[in-house]
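tl;dr need the bound structure. longer version: we got a ligand (adenosine-5'-triphosphate) that a collaborator sent over and nobodys looked at where it sits. i said id run it. heres the input, straight from their email, havent touched it
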Amino acid sequence: MKKKFQNSKTETVVYFICSLVGLLIVWQLAVSFTSLQKVMPSPFVVLGFIGQSLTQKIGGKILPLHILASLKRVFVGYFLACIIGIPLGILMGCSKTGKAIVKPIFELLRPIPGLAWIPLAILWFGIGETSKYFIICVSAIVSIILNAYAGASQVDQTLVGAARMLGAKPAQIFLYITLPASVPQIFAGLQVGLSSSWMAVIAAEMIRANEGAGWIITTGMESGNTVQILAGMISIGLVGLLLASLLRLIERGLCSWNIQGR
Amino acid sequence: MSKVEVNHLTKSFGSLKVLDDISFQVNDGDFLCIVGPTGCGKTTFLNSLVKLYDIDDGEILINGEEVDLNKHSIAYIMQEYSTMSWLTVKENIQFGMKVRKFSKEKLNRKTEEVLKMVGLEKFADYYPEQLSASMLQRVSIARAFAVEPDLLLMDEPYGQLDLELRFRLEDELIRIWQETKTTIVFITHNIEEAVYMSQRIMVLTNKPTKVKEDFVNPLPLPRNVTEEKFIEMRNKVTNLIKWW
Ligand SMILES: Nc1ncnc2c1ncn2[C@@H]1O[C@H](COP(=O)(O)OP(=O)(O)OP(=O)(O)O)[C@@H](O)[C@H]1O
Ligand SMILES: [Mg+2]
């Protein structure tokens, strides 16, 4: 699992572009030559719509501002999930009592999808922004906590022993061994959490909002505008991809030692 | 005065009795080589000494007191890999010196010195993932030597190395011992190595493990593996081991 065959950077980019172009061609062919054309617009119509809405408003806003509105919600909810989840998870991983108390709760919460919290969120916080932050936060937090927990609790005890032998005190062992050793696992949780919160914002906006990427899709549906729906979906995909890559970039910077970090 | 005192040490893993009422002493300044069959509990002994394992019965004392890793200056080169994968070779080597608060000047000087000793100068900025097994082992060796311990524990440290490097590091260890009078406990499967370096040899039995022989190696340093006396000594130890 460690040392995989590694493509060069340019190769990766070339393959990426090839697969995108391939997708567009298949889509276009399907629309041109099959009955799919009755329900699907051509990809170029959709891309054209996206290009056009960079300057022309959909509803009250141009597309980038809609996406920005969604991003802001994700940022708040996800940020909350991080600052609560990472310390809590590490704490659980380090302390047996902490784990004994908190772990069962999260094992119970884990199978509940973030979206199942929507009804409660609406009852508790109304249909405004707060309930959206809440939904995003709970969607992201469970995997963040459980991964930070796993990272901190699976630290190689040989290393802890080696550090202690070299004279490290408990605080130093935590700072110099436990924390860095759990970083890759923490980031795995952050990745999953990020995509969960990006999914959650769309769902939250589809229920009630007047801006955002989810809103674009819902209004598209209400007005039977397939092009707008697809444009919304594609933007969501692109932004999600961008966010994940951004996080991976941060991870690379933080753990350059972990060359398996793809 | 005895540096390490082991009294009635007993240790089991579940129903497997590994160490059975073992007692011996390591004197201050000893260079003790321990040889014994595989699985007899050599690593278990060292791990118990540094409190990685709890012992069932008996006691282990250093300078006549309970082992305290912050007080007693011990370095332990483990049989398993124990390099920190998020630190470079250099940072790994400096870890112990940093937590022991060596001065900057000494830290840099020592780093250079041990890097050179294990032949890793060119790899100072590499991460463990980028190193071979023998190089990893050398990082652990360098890290342990760097902290200038009073008690140096080594668990088959040279097993992975090629012969040339092995000979060099054997001589290096003898030099360090002669210069610093560090107490050394060195575990090995290699009888020639034990006879070549040690000033005292301890032979262990099979499980449940007891001390079978414990004797001083009288050959003067530096030793020559082709000398008659050396070969005699080597055969003596080999014979002891044959009758496990
Ligand atoms: N953590 C552990 N849990 C259970 N059994 C163990 C553990 N560590 C060691 N043992 C057992 O104790 C015995 C002694 O193991 P130890 O590693 O001390 O042997 P050793 O003398 O160092 O062997 P080698 O020469 O192969 O390194 C073995 O039978 C081993 O299976
Ligand atoms: Mg061993």
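gonna send this back to them w/ a short note. Chain A has a mean pLDDT of 87.
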